[in-house]
Amino acid sequence: MRTKDNRRVDVEVSVSCIELYGEIMLFAFHNDITEKKHRDKMFLLNQRKAHMGEMLSIIAHQWKQPISVIGAAINNLKIETMFGTLQENVLKAAIEKIDNMIQHLSQTISDFIGFFKPDKGKEVSDIRSIMQKVLNIIGEQYKNKGIEVDLRCQSDTRIDTHVSELVQVFLSILENARDAFEGKSVASPKVSIDIYDRDVSVVTEIKDNAGGISPKVMDNMFLPYYTTKGELNGTGLGLYMANMIIEEHCHGKLYAKNIDGGASFIVEIPKRTD
Question: Which residues does UniProt call coiled coil (predicted)?
Fold first, then answer.
């Protein structure tokens, strides 16, 4: 609609029909909603910007680990080259590790580009092979920090899932387990990973002996931007995204509890139905 001064405005029109003096009459009312539409448009624009910023933060968070692995591999190659002790098999292993991490970085971008697509396909896999991929990424850091990893798998049950997203979930949980030992004097730091079947689900239980989680952190750790690591060391998005992936994309459950001497994170994924 245009006004007398030729301005275009958006209007909301409501029409009602009534009988008056034996005749059917139509009454129309209009309301100028130009300003409301503008506010709604700006709100959606700001939401998109916020989502974009959030996704960039998540990608940065997921890139930290592979970049750290690449940096460590290159550093080792420099040292061995400097002392003239570099052997061909060591060089080949380092190149393979760097290549795997680069593929992981590239896959992370692809994953998050299609993260909210409802029609993305699932793959048939099992938790054992997915966990091996995760340990290939983060295992070196555990070794360098003297944290023992004990993987016990009692299930080869197949699941329909987004493999790369589950890799991100387990990475986030294991990064938190690793960081739980920071600043603590634990004689024999250890993380145990148990994979087993339960009714209609495959369960992955990740336990540490780092002393447990405080009630405040337990209540808030799955909320967005909640972190105990400070702005420079954490985004507060790792466990939030992990929970979203498990609940919305895998139709499973992710929860945590304190156990004797530490904490346990439990992931339940529905078994594949043939």
Answer: none
